[in-house]
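Model the whole thing, not chain by chain.
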Amino acid sequence: MGAPERRVVLSAVAVLVAGAPLAVESRYLLAMLVFIALNGLPAVGLSLVMGFAGQVSLGQAAFFAVGAYVSGVLTATHGWNGWLALLLGVAAAAALAVVVGLPIFRLSGLLLAMATLAFGIIVYYVLVNWSAVTGGPSGLAGVPPLTLGRFRFDTDARMFWLAWGSLLGVLALTGNLVDSRIGRALRAVHGNEAAAAAVGIDTARLKLGVFVLAAAITALAGGLYAHYLTFINPSPFGFGYSVELLVMVVLGGAASLWGAVLGAATVVLLVEALRAVLPLLTAAHGAAEYEIALFGLLLMAFMLFRPSGLAGLAPRAS
Amino acid sequence: MTAEQIAQYLISGAVVGGIYALIALGFVIAFGITRIVNFAQGEFVMLGALAMATLSARGVRAPVAFACSVVSVAAFGALLYRGALQPLTRAPALAVLILTIGASITIRGVALILWGTDPLAVPAFAAGPPVLVAGAVMVRQGFWVLGVAAASFVALWWFFTRTYSGAAVQACAVNPLAARLMGIRVDRVGVLAWLLAAGLGAAAGAVISPITYATYDMGLMLGLKGFVAAVLGGLVSPPAAIAGGFLLGVVESLAAGLVSSAYKDAVAFVVLVLVCLAQVLGALPWRVVEEG
């Protein structure tokens, strides 16, 4: 998609987003759409990392958690302004991404998947064990909704505007980035790293930049999530969520930003459908693990038969 | 901090280190031949432990149960490579990595369905009270762990340096194209490498299961530790991977004792990032990874 077409698509989706809460009556459906946007943001971030830095991160859930907890703790416990807290959460995630990524990207990228997996596990431990601040396993309640003057983002419809507005904003920005000089450099790195380095591209720095940007986008979604639900606990931010994000990007076909949003929608709806169906088939315990096994099969099937994702199911143009 | 306590940490660290070394060897052998970082290596460990638990519960004696677990998981590893990974030989590294992640999650899910969530107890290979070693307590199974690790190392060394097939495997690790020109079936050697890697993982899982119990979700953490151990040794050298395994086990045990046991699992990650940083800064006398 070139820049002019993208502007058309973005505007069209923006109109739909502006009108949707007026047309959609069901609160359940609106909440589902909010969750699609809140998952779409980290999926777009991970698709940048996979599609343009050619790496897998298995710690994206941790960046989401950092965004959620920094913003949640600062507002609920310390009474900060919500937007300031959100911003600080994003900055904290970006800083952590630099710490994790700086040594890794200078070396072989093979290490990133394992290093981020380990990073995600540590963040999860901290959330559970540092209960004086995070509330431990029972979580943190009373996160206030975001406000603009007197306007409170406290209904599903208002949150829908905020979440989809953020997603469209991020898509516009990252879309421009991909089409820019930096985007061309990134594609060159992905195509042939040695050749890219030979024409003077600092490949390690570019990849690190993409990783940090992805972490920031993911933390933004985490912050919005905390202010939307007003309650956070560690369990949604484990390894399983990082895998879900990976599935979203693989379904969408890595390197396709809109594909990532499509993947997010598919996974959110799939999980919802599974939660309705699985209890009928099995005993109550471990339903979440069955989900994960299914995601594992999906990952294998797509890598073996459809590496280009759901978009690859459509007939090729050329 | 007394000398006894230090001795205790060193001994516990060495036992866990033997496990990490076995898993790390699996990573190194699979990576050396097929250039695949096998994310599912930890699941072979889990399968070995659960197979051991099932066979022991049926009354099979420990040596037979151990052998059956290792052989069946090794065959499974070879099948996984032949069936799912070899067709992707020409695919980008990212796709192959995602495939092994998918395999790992699928194996864990199937194990959950077959074995359930409860940790399964496995009887020690030889019953008896713990033994005092240099003032520290060592469970009897610890000797079995170290014994199995040592026996595996010697057997592998013998295989790689004294047999024709072992030489073929080494040739493939050094230069697959040249090996192929010499008439070595490189694709078969890949299957053999995965057979060995899965077998080593299963041996680690089966021998540690009397100490840690066997659960469907034990593979992720053990696989991660084994990987860090392999990276410590440079990911391509079997002896260095063994050293990396014992080093990580001891460092982890000391850190848990001296700092905090709540964050014991964080040690592997900190070690991984620190050695990478050290290599970037040029402060490491050896290389942990090829620079890319």
